[in-house]
Write a structure and sequence with these properties.
heterodimer; A: mainly alpha; MetI-like fold; flat; B: mainly alpha
Chain lengths: 276, 281
Amino acid sequence: MLLLAVFLLYPLVGSFRLSLLDWNGLGTGARYVGLANWMHLSHDAVFWKALRNNLLLAVFSVLIQLPIALVLAVMLDKAGRGSRVLKLLYFLPLLMSSVAIGVLFKNVYDPNFGPLDVALRAIGLDSLAQDWLGDPRFSLASTIAVICWQNIPFYMILFLAGLSSFPAELGEAARLDGASESTIFWRIKLPHLQGTIRTAMLLAVLGSLRYFDLVFVMTGGGPEHASELMATYMYNKVFSSFQLGYGSTIASAMFLIVALVAAATMRATQRYSQKV
Amino acid sequence: MIALRIREHALAKRGVSYMLALVWLAVTTLPFLFIIVTSFKSQEESFSSSVWDLPQRIDLSQYESVLHGAFFVYLRNSFFVVGLSVLLIVLLSSMAAYAFARLDFPFGKTLFGLVVAAMIVPIHATLVPIYLLIRNIGLYDTAFALVGPYVAFGLPISIFILTEFMRQIPRELEEAACLDGCGPLKIFWRIYFPLSTPGLATVAIYNAVALWNEFIFAYVLTSTPAHRTLPLAIWDFQGQYTSNVPGMLAVVTMTSLPLIAVYAFGQERVIKGMMAGSLKG
């Protein structure tokens, strides 16, 4: 409990305290500025852009990761035992650190030597070859694609666990009654997975709002803040421009947003599951 | 006739799911293929030949130089930091879980609520204050700098999992095992701790995987290779040799291998452990 207090509670309170200061982090130059940082934050276009990127990431995480993961899980579930090797290979991205994945895809996306652009040029699609991470038009989409690559296996296994708890007799009974495979899936299996899907959505949204690692490794939030997230913006303010006070304001805002969204979603799903 | 059509339909469907399986297999494994093929090329070859060509000659010099560098220092630090943190997490969270599950104490429910709430804290929001704290207490750039925050981040979810687990251990076992009555500490060590082994394993695996790959706190709280963990081996290498692509990918391979090896041996266990994270939130 003491450890929790020291490393979770204290930093959270500390963050709010720091957010009221104008401080470069060195020595005693700290100056109390009241709510000035918070005022500044509310007009900070970069912060709003970062928040928008976080929300985009959340939307695409739910819309891309979950359906693909669900389809893969259903397929693996049907394949049964023969899918062991497939499962092993599908799972690999989850075992790599974000730095490893980030460095890997930085090379994959490389406009001169990267396999992606080389392949595009080889099949005559030169015009599609891009500077995927260096071009502000593509950097956010490119990083989101890698985040999906990293996380889909997680949701796949989550859904697979949900499916494996599906009683086989239920499917048998429905089949005997003449239900087609697709009816069984949409009418029986999917409702059975409802709880798992809700958990997955909650995890995807909360994870997206506080995302940091891959974006930091691949683009650092750039170019021109095109792929900036709240967490990377906070980092850049504190450790690159040494605005500890303002960086802490961003951190506190991020915490408040995540807590609000979490509370709202949990209340909503609770009410929903009570209704059902 | 109808039966035939149904069979055709089923075949077509099966074809679609095979296609999907293959497409996703390609999406997942091609990057790995790229890593392996390129890391066996010499630096000159990686510039002169197409990335899709196999190496003309297996060149092990990248791996040699990685192994002769500081790789083992990073590896040792990772083992130390992750090992100590996981040990502390398992010990502390099992004790706390026992208290939450079986002992009545004032504010127990409130405290447990706080622990659950702590699971949603975005850890990056705590980065700056922790950085200042670690610097002020003189632990900056030591292996111990990471243990405190790591244990604190691992505790909430671990306590949550283990409390659920211990609540399912029947109370009668306490009475049966300790007829003459033992104190809470003895009950914990003799009954709840050993009976929770599956839960403890889950907690240990979940935290070990997460901490083994942790990056940003390790990056901010340490500064010299002598005290840094494996994920930073990649980062430091990248910073030093920006254009040595085969070398970089050799480091990526070497740092990812330990976990992949563990996973290959204990697939089901590892999956189960990592799924513990789905309880988050």
